[in-house]
Design goal:
single chain; about 160 residues; alpha/beta; Signal recognition particle alu RNA binding heterodimer, srp9/1; 2,3-Dihydroxybiphenyl 1,2-Dioxygenase, domain 1; 2 domains; 4-stranded mixed β-sheet; about 30% helix
Length: about 160
């Protein structure tokens, strides 16, 4: 049986090199693994320009393509990043929303390239999946109006006495 790997491919409109440099500057375990330059003019790159860039972000392999302007990113897919504490959540949030990125809601943002991200505190899934449904409900109710997630406020909701 053949083993397959699955890697996301993000399509950009002539911004692939800028985007990959931006993403690899944010994550600690990140690198550019390779770059393929266009050998002929394409809708997203002229001869000699970057066409496909392979990179690793936080241990996950990605491909980034200068594919042209035919498609835009939307919220049907997002990249989820777990932050260990509020400082890391804030650092990731600030970096990914910089220079034209837009905060959305419930820990979601769009970066300057239009890619949707979810910046999730490491403790959130445990609180939301607690067997005590009242605790879980309070956390969800606290989270829903938030834009950037606030770990202290989520924990206060979680530990609140009934």
């Amino acid at each position: 049986m053949t083993t397959h790997t699955i890697s996301p491919c993000l399509g950009f409109d002539r911004q692939v090199e800028e985007a990959v440099q931006f993403y690899t500057s944010i994550f600690l375990d990140a690198r550019i693994d390779g770059m393929l330059r266009a050998s002929v003019d394409t809708p997203g790159a002229t001869t000699g320009e970057p066409l496909l860039v392979d990179c690793t972000l936080a241990g996950q392999t990605y491909h980034a393509l200068n594919g042209g302007a035919h498609d835009r990113f939307n919220d049907a897919i997002s990249l989820v990043v777990t932050g260990q504490d509020q400082a890391e959540v804030d650092r990731l949030w600030d970096a990914l929303s910089a220079d034209g990125g837009k905060p959305v809601q419930c820990g979601w943002l769009k970066d300057k390239f239009g890619v949707s991200w979810q910046i999730v505190p490491e403790v959130l899934p445990k609180m939301i999946n607690d067997k005590d449904r009242e605790k879980s409900k309070r956390v969800m109710e606290a989270m829903m109006p938030m834009v950037r997630l606030d770990i202290d406020a989520l924990q206060q909701a979680y530990h609140q006495s009934a």
